[in-house]
Amino acid sequence: MIASVDEAAKAIVRTSFSTLSNEANDFACVLTDAEGQLLAQNSGSIPSFIGTLPATVRHALDKFGRDGLHPGDVICTNDPWLGTGHLNDCSIVRPIFRDSHLIAFAATASHMPDIGGRIRSVEAREIFEEGFQIPLIKILRNGTEDKTFFELLRAQVRTPNQTEGDINALITANYLIEDRVLTMLAEYGLDNLQAISKELNDRTEIAMRSAIKNITDGIYDYQMQTDGLSADAPFTFALRLTVAGETVHFDFSGTSSV
Protein backbone atom coordinates (compact mmCIF):
# COMPACT_ATOMS: atom_id res chain seq x y z
CA MET A 1 0.00 0.00 0.00
CA ILE A 2 2.84 2.37 0.77
CA ALA A 3 4.38 1.57 -2.60
CA SER A 4 1.11 2.59 -4.26
CA VAL A 5 1.01 6.05 -2.67
CA ASP A 6 4.75 6.53 -3.17
CA GLU A 7 4.31 5.82 -6.87
CA ALA A 8 1.42 8.28 -6.96
CA ALA A 9 3.66 10.91 -5.35
CA LYS A 10 6.25 10.43 -8.08
CA ALA A 11 3.50 10.82 -10.66
CA ILE A 12 2.55 14.19 -9.14
CA VAL A 13 6.17 15.37 -9.29
CA ARG A 14 6.41 14.39 -12.95
CA THR A 15 3.01 15.63 -14.14
CA SER A 16 2.26 18.75 -12.08
CA PHE A 17 2.75 22.12 -13.72
CA SER A 18 3.97 24.26 -10.82
CA THR A 19 7.23 24.16 -8.88
CA LEU A 20 5.24 23.98 -5.64
CA SER A 21 4.64 20.31 -6.42
CA ASN A 22 7.45 19.25 -8.75
CA GLU A 23 10.23 20.94 -6.76
CA ALA A 24 8.96 21.93 -3.31
CA ASN A 25 6.94 18.69 -2.82
CA ASP A 26 4.12 20.67 -1.21
CA PHE A 27 1.61 17.85 -1.54
CA ALA A 28 0.56 14.51 -0.05
CA CYS A 29 -1.01 11.22 -1.14
CA VAL A 30 -2.95 8.87 1.13
CA LEU A 31 -5.01 5.70 1.00
CA THR A 32 -7.88 5.21 3.44
CA ASP A 33 -10.31 2.39 4.07
CA ALA A 34 -14.01 2.65 3.22
CA GLU A 35 -14.64 4.54 6.48
CA GLY A 36 -11.95 7.15 5.87
CA GLN A 37 -9.37 5.69 8.26
CA LEU A 38 -5.78 6.20 7.12
CA LEU A 39 -3.99 3.12 5.78
CA ALA A 40 -0.96 4.49 3.95
CA GLN A 41 0.74 7.78 3.18
CA ASN A 42 3.55 8.64 0.82
CA SER A 43 7.02 8.75 2.35
CA GLY A 44 7.74 12.42 1.72
CA SER A 45 4.41 14.01 2.52
CA ILE A 46 3.60 17.36 4.08
CA PRO A 47 2.65 16.36 7.67
CA SER A 48 -0.39 18.64 7.87
CA PHE A 49 -1.92 17.11 4.73
CA ILE A 50 -1.51 13.61 6.12
CA GLY A 51 -3.60 14.63 9.10
CA THR A 52 -6.30 16.46 7.15
CA LEU A 53 -6.88 14.22 4.12
CA PRO A 54 -8.57 11.35 6.02
CA ALA A 55 -10.85 13.94 7.64
CA THR A 56 -11.72 15.33 4.20
CA VAL A 57 -12.59 11.81 3.06
CA ARG A 58 -14.95 11.43 6.01
CA HIS A 59 -16.57 14.79 5.21
CA ALA A 60 -17.15 13.52 1.67
CA LEU A 61 -18.76 10.38 3.06
CA ASP A 62 -21.00 12.47 5.30
CA LYS A 63 -22.11 14.69 2.43
CA PHE A 64 -22.63 12.17 -0.37
CA GLY A 65 -23.15 8.92 1.55
CA ARG A 66 -22.16 5.54 0.18
CA ASP A 67 -25.12 5.52 -2.20
CA GLY A 68 -24.11 8.90 -3.59
CA LEU A 69 -20.64 7.76 -4.61
CA HIS A 70 -19.95 5.92 -7.86
CA PRO A 71 -16.95 4.51 -9.76
CA GLY A 72 -15.15 7.31 -11.57
CA ASP A 73 -16.33 10.06 -9.23
CA VAL A 74 -13.76 12.65 -8.16
CA ILE A 75 -14.47 15.11 -5.34
CA CYS A 76 -12.67 18.40 -4.80
CA THR A 77 -12.61 21.07 -2.09
CA ASN A 78 -10.40 23.78 -0.67
CA ASP A 79 -12.75 24.56 2.22
CA PRO A 80 -10.43 25.35 5.17
CA TRP A 81 -12.82 23.69 7.63
CA LEU A 82 -13.07 20.48 5.60
CA GLY A 83 -9.51 20.33 4.31
CA THR A 84 -6.07 21.71 4.93
CA GLY A 85 -6.64 25.14 6.45
CA HIS A 86 -6.41 27.72 3.65
CA LEU A 87 -7.82 28.15 0.16
CA ASN A 88 -4.54 27.61 -1.71
CA ASP A 89 -4.58 23.93 -0.75
CA CYS A 90 -6.90 21.79 -2.86
CA SER A 91 -7.90 18.30 -1.73
CA ILE A 92 -8.97 15.64 -4.24
CA VAL A 93 -10.82 12.46 -3.19
CA ARG A 94 -11.58 9.41 -5.32
CA PRO A 95 -13.73 6.51 -4.06
CA ILE A 96 -12.38 3.07 -4.97
CA PHE A 97 -14.81 0.29 -5.87
CA ARG A 98 -14.35 -3.45 -6.35
CA ASP A 99 -17.25 -5.48 -7.75
CA SER A 100 -19.54 -2.46 -7.23
CA HIS A 101 -18.65 -2.25 -3.52
CA LEU A 102 -16.92 0.78 -1.98
CA ILE A 103 -13.67 -0.52 -0.47
CA ALA A 104 -11.37 2.49 -0.06
CA PHE A 105 -10.53 6.07 -0.96
CA ALA A 106 -7.53 7.59 -2.68
CA ALA A 107 -6.90 11.18 -1.61
CA THR A 108 -4.36 13.82 -2.55
CA ALA A 109 -3.76 17.47 -1.73
CA SER A 110 -1.35 20.14 -2.88
CA HIS A 111 -0.71 23.86 -2.66
CA MET A 112 -1.97 25.56 -5.81
CA PRO A 113 0.23 28.20 -7.50
CA ASP A 114 -2.71 30.61 -7.35
CA ILE A 115 -6.34 30.46 -6.26
CA GLY A 116 -7.29 34.11 -6.85
CA GLY A 117 -7.88 36.66 -4.11
CA ARG A 118 -5.21 39.01 -2.77
CA ILE A 119 -1.64 38.45 -3.88
CA ARG A 120 -0.52 38.36 -0.24
CA SER A 121 -3.17 36.10 1.25
CA VAL A 122 -1.79 36.64 4.76
CA GLU A 123 -3.15 40.18 4.55
CA ALA A 124 -6.70 38.99 3.87
CA ARG A 125 -9.22 40.31 6.38
CA GLU A 126 -11.85 37.69 5.55
CA ILE A 127 -12.01 34.46 3.59
CA PHE A 128 -13.57 36.19 0.57
CA GLU A 129 -10.29 38.04 0.08
CA GLU A 130 -8.30 34.81 0.14
CA GLY A 131 -9.54 33.55 -3.22
CA PHE A 132 -11.84 31.18 -5.06
CA GLN A 133 -13.77 28.93 -2.65
CA ILE A 134 -14.52 25.38 -3.75
CA PRO A 135 -17.12 23.58 -1.63
CA LEU A 136 -17.13 19.79 -1.41
CA ILE A 137 -18.26 19.02 -4.97
CA LYS A 138 -17.83 16.37 -7.65
CA ILE A 139 -15.62 17.58 -10.49
CA LEU A 140 -15.85 14.20 -12.25
CA ARG A 141 -19.01 12.10 -12.29
CA ASN A 142 -18.72 8.49 -13.39
CA GLY A 143 -15.44 9.42 -15.05
CA THR A 144 -16.86 12.41 -16.95
CA GLU A 145 -15.19 15.77 -16.30
CA ASP A 146 -17.29 18.73 -15.22
CA LYS A 147 -16.04 21.20 -17.84
CA THR A 148 -18.00 24.07 -16.30
CA PHE A 149 -16.04 23.74 -13.07
CA PHE A 150 -12.70 23.99 -14.85
CA GLU A 151 -13.88 26.95 -16.94
CA LEU A 152 -14.97 28.72 -13.76
CA LEU A 153 -11.69 27.85 -12.02
CA ARG A 154 -9.58 29.19 -14.89
CA ALA A 155 -11.51 32.47 -14.82
CA GLN A 156 -10.75 33.01 -11.11
CA VAL A 157 -6.97 32.47 -10.99
CA ARG A 158 -3.89 34.25 -12.31
CA THR A 159 -2.19 31.03 -13.42
CA PRO A 160 -4.98 29.04 -15.10
CA ASN A 161 -2.75 26.53 -16.87
CA GLN A 162 -0.65 25.79 -13.79
CA THR A 163 -3.58 25.59 -11.38
CA GLU A 164 -5.65 23.35 -13.65
CA GLY A 165 -2.56 21.27 -14.43
CA ASP A 166 -1.80 20.70 -10.76
CA ILE A 167 -5.39 19.63 -10.04
CA ASN A 168 -5.24 17.20 -12.96
CA ALA A 169 -1.97 15.83 -11.55
CA LEU A 170 -3.77 15.07 -8.27
CA ILE A 171 -6.65 13.42 -10.13
CA THR A 172 -4.20 11.23 -12.06
CA ALA A 173 -2.35 10.28 -8.88
CA ASN A 174 -5.60 9.12 -7.29
CA TYR A 175 -6.39 7.01 -10.34
CA LEU A 176 -2.94 5.43 -10.05
CA ILE A 177 -3.54 4.58 -6.38
CA GLU A 178 -6.86 2.98 -7.31
CA ASP A 179 -5.25 0.90 -10.06
CA ARG A 180 -2.45 -0.37 -7.82
CA VAL A 181 -4.80 -1.20 -4.94
CA LEU A 182 -7.16 -3.19 -7.16
CA THR A 183 -4.19 -5.02 -8.67
CA MET A 184 -2.94 -5.89 -5.17
CA LEU A 185 -6.35 -7.21 -4.10
CA ALA A 186 -6.60 -9.37 -7.21
CA GLU A 187 -3.08 -10.72 -6.69
CA TYR A 188 -3.76 -11.74 -3.08
CA GLY A 189 -7.34 -12.89 -3.63
CA LEU A 190 -8.90 -10.26 -1.36
CA ASP A 191 -12.31 -8.66 -1.79
CA ASN A 192 -11.65 -5.54 0.29
CA LEU A 193 -9.30 -3.90 2.79
CA GLN A 194 -11.39 -4.40 5.95
CA ALA A 195 -9.18 -7.06 7.55
CA ILE A 196 -6.01 -5.15 6.70
CA SER A 197 -7.45 -1.93 8.11
CA LYS A 198 -8.52 -3.55 11.38
CA GLU A 199 -5.16 -5.24 11.89
CA LEU A 200 -3.24 -2.07 11.10
CA ASN A 201 -5.31 0.09 13.43
CA ASP A 202 -5.19 -2.51 16.23
CA ARG A 203 -1.41 -2.75 16.01
CA THR A 204 -1.09 1.03 15.91
CA GLU A 205 -3.20 1.43 19.05
CA ILE A 206 -1.21 -1.22 20.90
CA ALA A 207 2.08 0.44 19.94
CA MET A 208 0.88 3.90 20.96
CA ARG A 209 -0.48 2.75 24.32
CA SER A 210 2.78 0.93 24.98
CA ALA A 211 4.75 4.09 24.24
CA ILE A 212 2.54 6.18 26.54
CA LYS A 213 3.17 3.72 29.39
CA ASN A 214 6.85 4.66 29.23
CA ILE A 215 6.01 8.25 30.19
CA THR A 216 5.89 8.95 33.91
CA ASP A 217 2.34 9.55 35.12
CA GLY A 218 1.66 13.17 35.95
CA ILE A 219 0.54 16.57 34.72
CA TYR A 220 2.70 18.44 32.23
CA ASP A 221 2.03 22.13 31.50
CA TYR A 222 3.35 24.11 28.54
CA GLN A 223 2.68 27.59 27.21
CA MET A 224 4.11 29.67 24.38
CA GLN A 225 3.28 32.84 22.49
CA THR A 226 3.35 33.41 18.75
CA ASP A 227 2.56 36.33 16.47
CA GLY A 228 -1.08 37.32 16.67
CA LEU A 229 -3.27 39.41 14.40
CA SER A 230 -1.45 42.51 15.64
CA ALA A 231 1.91 43.23 17.25
CA ASP A 232 0.35 44.14 20.60
CA ALA A 233 -1.89 41.06 20.74
CA PRO A 234 0.23 37.88 20.60
CA PHE A 235 -1.46 34.50 20.35
CA THR A 236 -1.07 32.31 23.43
CA PHE A 237 -0.93 28.55 23.02
CA ALA A 238 -1.48 26.64 26.28
CA LEU A 239 -1.54 22.92 26.93
CA ARG A 240 -1.98 20.76 30.01
CA LEU A 241 -1.12 17.16 29.28
CA THR A 242 -2.25 14.55 31.81
CA VAL A 243 -0.62 11.12 31.55
CA ALA A 244 -2.22 8.20 33.38
CA GLY A 245 -1.15 4.68 32.56
CA GLU A 246 -1.64 4.16 28.85
CA THR A 247 -3.84 7.23 28.31
CA VAL A 248 -3.14 10.90 27.65
CA HIS A 249 -5.60 13.78 28.12
CA PHE A 250 -5.00 17.08 26.31
CA ASP A 251 -6.46 20.28 27.79
CA PHE A 252 -6.02 23.48 25.77
CA SER A 253 -7.69 25.76 28.31
CA GLY A 254 -5.95 29.13 28.36
CA THR A 255 -5.28 29.15 24.61
CA SER A 256 -6.26 32.40 22.91
CA SER A 257 -9.54 32.40 21.03
CA VAL A 258 -9.31 32.99 17.28
How would you sum up this structure, described in words?
This protein has 258 residues and is an alpha+beta fold. It folds into two domains: 2-203, no CATH class; 218-251, no CATH class. The chain has six helices and ten strands, in the order ααββαβββββαααβββ. The strands form two sheets. Strands 2-1-5-4-3-6-7 form a seven-stranded antiparallel beta sheet, sandwiched between helices. A hairpin with a 2-residue loop joins β6 (137-141) and β7 (144-145). The two termini are 38 Å apart. One of its GO terms (biological process) is glutathione metabolic process. This is Hydantoinase B/oxoprolinase domain-containing protein. It holds the Pfam family Hydantoinase_B.
Summarize the structure.
By secondary structure, the protein is an alpha+beta fold.
Radius of gyration: 20 Å
Count of individual domains: 2
* Sheet having the most strands: 7 strands, antiparallel
Q: Provide the spatial order of strands within the biggest beta sheet.
A: 2-1-5-4-3-6-7
* Mean pLDDT over the residues: 95
Distance between the termini: 38 Å
The assembly state of the depicted protein chains is single chain
Order of helices and strands: HHEEHEEEEEHHHEEE
Proportion of beta-strand residues: 25-35%
